[in-house]
Prior knowledge:
This protein is mostly beta strands. Among the domains are: about 10-70; about 115-250, no CATH class. It contains five helices and 41 strands.
Amino acid sequence: MFFSNSFDLMAAQTKKMLLFHTVSDTLRNKPKAKPKIKNLLPLSLFFLLLAGCEFGQQTEPASAPNSALMENPQTLQNLESIIRKSLKDSGQSSIQPSTGVRLLSSSSIAVSDASPSSSMFSTTTLAESGVDEGDLVKNDDQFLYVTHQSFFGDSGSAINIFKMQEAPAQAIYQGSVQLGQLSVNALYVRGDQSSRELTVISGAQGWGYAGWYRMGYWGGNSSFDVALFDVTHPSSVEKNWSVNIDGTYLDSRSINNKLYIVSRYYPHVKNYVAYPVDYADAVNNQELIDETPVQSLLPTRRVNGSNEATLHIEADQCVVPKDSATNQSFMPFIVTITTIDLNNPDGMDVSCVLGEDSGLYVSTENLYLFNQNSWDKTFIHKFEFTPDGARYRASGQVDGSLGWNNPHLRFSEYGGFLRVMTTRWSWLNDVIAADGNVVIDSFCCTANYEHSLHVMQALGTKLVEVATLPNESRPETIGEPGEDLYGVRFQGDRAYAVTYRRTDPLYAIDLSNPLDPKITGALKIPGFSSYIHPLGDNFILGIGNDSVEEGDLSFTQGVKVGLFDVSQLDNPRLVKQDIIGKRGSYSPVSYDYHALTLVQSFDADHYKLVVPVQVHEGNIAWLSGDSSESSAYYDWNRSIFRFYDVDLTSDQGFASGGDLVVDSSTSDRSWSQNYFFRSVIFGGSVHSIYGDSIWSSSWQSPSNAVPASSASP
């Protein structure tokens, strides 16, 4: 478990810790302000009497607080002891020794402040405004930075830099950042006309199970690099700073020139047997753990290529589950949040949590780590952004899980409340309606889904659920029986949810009163939207797939791009939709929203939009028996970027501007590891990236695209 299930914090302790935060945050976050002595002094004196502590000039960040679920080990020795015990518990065997004694079983930064050289340019599509996300392609107001991953023994990974030219449209190669055999995880870029800096996060670990999955199951530790490159002159790139950190890179965000990196480390014990099958192996595990130095139990770092390793964490900024000493299944993963001030990278700050984890959600003010490994509950840790770094503040839990497709989009922080949408599911043979008729019939098992909206608030060190939907007074469910939750998006005091089994119900939820959320309207049309993107306050864009119904069955069809008018929350309506391809077609945007390109045109009601699609409409690849063609899957035919002009003042909503075809079944396909779609709108031109290929065209003539000038990966 990520942390214990008990919420037994005493009221006096809560008040004491809450008071501690009030005072220490005032001193830490506003060091230059002159305090109002008449207001601050009595509070400080009261705190001194209550806590038995003494304020002078605060030179060290305050320690992480204890909470209902977590506690601060305070010292390195205590942290080390917890890790060693957990390793011993998990390294024991269920095999009884000959003595009959049984061992216990183990179970970005802002892109640019300068005026762009073109009238407009798009940047990375983000989940949260003001919170930059790392990607494999980045751009500023002049240059395009494109990742080439090392592939089958080529010269290695690189970031190739191209100058974007608007007329005639072309990407012109300028230089590259060479990274050897490292895999690129994320890029960030910042700067202006006089100085540009590229941040590259890369690592030796491969793809696949590396990431948010339980690293201990899939091959142990690795390390990753964070490097800052001066790319002011792309033909002569210079490295400004770098650090190598033990562990697996998981994710990152950037806000106001600060980079927040989440990684996971598993204590390394040489020759340790993770799943001992006999008593001898179990005993040997215990001895190995005792002999392992603390440097191998905790992550270390090396700055600027140094061979000298220093510990990467500080015990007083870590929290551990309160039940870690008694929970035999507790796994001592060390999840770290590293804060790097890009203006002063040597002053790194690190907080950490011991336990398992599944992902993160980041607002402009807080970072939330969540874990849903139990599937029926989601556990959440809140970290507040302070001038020192990310600081642990509170923990809580909600019923249900978040799914696998961009689970962080099911979170939103607004007006001091955290909103979370979860799903609980179970298997059943059929669903019976009130009149006794079978709504869902299956020869075996059908998933039954229950979707809930939870509103949470931090009270002291607890994240407390203060409202939920559905509830007794508002029993309407989010979704019909058997409908899974596909797309979720929060926008201010609204939420939108798309469920699907046979039709596409778009639910509009009013959160203007966070203590009384309510479903105000629903629109049911064929298909579903896997990804939802707001366009202003009154429209949303949905990207997913169309569907057709035949009897009790529903079959997905081609890609659907839909524009919805939600100005009347109780009556959402479809303005227009575009269907691309046949059954089997999909858009990468459905699972990777960075593939979507969107930029405001000349005012807030006009946008330019680029959607990549893998179009399947060739021969029928598969048809089951006597089924209709609606159930048939079609062969892949081509890969395209479709251009759209969006006009929110028009009854038509949007119009297609044509397709850029970057690959087709009639061409000689070049398979590579760099299989991703990205595009950048740059004034009147578009620069589209498909793997290692870059194609540039004018906005008006996508079919007349030209390749980028030559680059050697």
